[in-house]
Amino acid sequence: MSNHSEVWSNQNWKKFQKNLFRLQKRIYKAMQNGDTRKVKSLQRLVLKSHAARMLAVRQVSQLNSGKKTCGVDGLNTLNFNQRLNLAQKLKEANHWEHEGLREVKIPKKNGKIRTLKIPTITDRAWQCLIKYALEPAHEVTFHARSYGFRPGRGTHDAQKYVFDNLRSRVKGHEKRVIELDIEKCFDRINHKAIMTNVIAPQQIKTGLWRCLKAGVSPEFPEQGTPQGGVVSPLLANIALNGIEEIHPSVRYADDMVFFLNPKDNAEKILEKVQQFLTKRGMNISAPKTKITRATAGFDFLGWHFKVQENGKFRCTPSEENYEKLRKKAKAIVNNSALATTAKAKKLSPIIRGWRNYHRYCKMDGSRFSLWHLSYATFKKFLKDKNKGKNEATKLANQAFPTVNYSENKFVMVKGEKSPYDGDLLYWSKRNSNLYDGHTAKALQRQSYKCGHCGHYLDGNEKVHLHHVDGNHDNWKPKNLLAVHESCHDYIHMGKRPKA
Question: Residue 114: what pLDDT?
Fold first, then answer.
């Protein structure tokens, strides 16, 4: 086992990434030039690439947040030998047979059930490999106002686009919005609509067809892309691409908002949207789709957007989003099984993450500044007999780390730019804006390069902050390195004592 772990950890991962990125960049440029024949030829090379296969296995077994989720085979983790064997098995990617999917029922807020269909780790690795080949080609075709599940784009881009369309300069107080809800989007996408629009050689299309058929509902055998698959969000984007052209709008996966001027006919727009969706096997959810005045406010992606009567634009965390945080924090603080110090440590990343997500909102007032929540936490900590007032204050401050807010100051991604365009400096700088505090400062000191491998931190991987001396209470700049998530793993793997 130790030998296999050394073989795995000693792989030249950065070289693999460079080799894969070189292929993906060529696919992107060939697609820009309209050379689909070359695109498909390069996609075949991705499937044959040893680098791509190794990276696909590493992504699903080591880096993905759902890496320990099992499929129908019950396998939720791979040892190093199994990872190496899987990389070899992916040589058969052109003739891949999908196993079944494990169904996981998740309750929705409206009381209904959402069914996630989880592929096996092996199938997830294949899907990841296919995604490496498909994504660069489709990044060229995707609309600039689509921000969901795309490299280099995210929710804050969508948030800023809403601001740009409802701010006082464009008379946002006169506008209305259509909050579009697509009925069971992932479950109803027509397979033929996906396959018709996929840019790929026949081998990949055949594999994708089998992938889609592995998760079908007997009731709708020609529809649906399984939620839980690695490639599913990309396939959904492929199917929905072009809906943005119907009318000025912003889309994040299947969440969408249309912006209406006073003279725009909402019914005609919805009619065009329905025609678009019908061709793809989907429908508008009439009960959930709303036409709302911008001055009345609406929720989108966890935020509440509203234009005041004086024309001033406001964005705050939505009520639902705030309540979710409050309940989560309350559950930790009231957990008698946890020590006070453990509660503070557990709360800290949750609060920091929430504040980071909302850092371009208006966060004044005791509610969204979390004053009430932090004070209640402090009082709870104060009840600990072993903690005095000073220590309780210190722990409460640790549990509620501060984040700098800058309302509506996020810088959107430029036009149709993509990480596959090869502009590494632009994407590294942009990626650094996603982080704050010590991480942001470390990125600037390191010129946006990983402190371990020296490659640009371009957003393909999360950035971790490494404490050089291992002391997580030492926050001196010399002790902090911004590194790739995988580099961080290998730094600590190297420090483990040999068996």
Answer: 79
Same domain flag for 12 and 130: yes
| Amino acid identity for residue 32 in this structure | Q
Backbone angles phi, psi at 369, to 5 degrees: -80, -5
State the CATH number of the domain containing residue 280.
3.30.70
351 — phi, psi (to 5°)?
-65, -45
Question: Final residue of a domain: which of 284, 315, 346?
Answer: 315
Residue 461: pLDDT over 80:
no
Please indicate, yes or no, whether residues 182 and 75 belong to a single structural domain of this protein.
Answer: no
Q: What is the secondary structure of 30-68 as a DSSP string?
A: HHHTT-HHHHHHHHHHHHH-HHHHHHHHHIIIIISTTTT
452 pLDDT tier (thresholds 50, 70, 90): confident
Sign of torsion over alpha carbons 439, 440, 441, 443: positive
Q: Are residues 249 and 117 in the same domain?
A: no
Domain that holds residue 483: 424-493
pLDDT bin (cut points 50, 70, 90) of residue 16 is very high
How many distinct structural domains can be found in the chain?
Answer: 4
The pLDDT-based confidence of 494 (bands split at 50, 70, 90) is low
How many Cβ atoms sit within 10 Å of the Cβ of residue 265? 9
- Portion of the chain with pLDDT greater than 70, in percent: 97
Cβ contact 322:183 at 8 Å:
no
Verify that 67 and 134 share a domain, yes or no.
Answer: yes
Clarify whether residues 311 and 174 are in a common domain. yes
Q: Which amino acid is at 495?
A: K
Listing DSSP states for 352-399 in one string gives HHHHHHTTTS---HHHHTTHHHHHHHHHHHHT-TT--HHHHHHHHHHH
Q: Is residue 207 part of a domain?
A: no
